[in-house]
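Researcher: Go.
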Amino acid sequence: MPGIAYALIAGVVVLFAVIVVLIVTFDARSWIARDLKHGDLHALIDVASGLRPDGLTEGQARRLQARGMVRPYGQGQFRATLKGRLALLIRQFIRRTA
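Model: Structure:
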């Protein structure tokens, strides 16, 4: 029984260390903007808010779909995915703290 407890504690410590390393080395700005062009995130905001679900150009739709930030539905309309909404939240947090 004590061996299991020690293994569990060691596993938690290792997991915590991995999380800390990822947080310290994670570059959120480059993750958000990777393979996107100027205006893509603004279009994603319009789609995520429901203002303009059809507000993406063909290029924006292709780039945002490739990143998994939007998914198509209906005829030329898009919905923001959880990953897209997370990118917008991280972007908003970065802008507030900068």
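Model: The mean pLDDT is 87.
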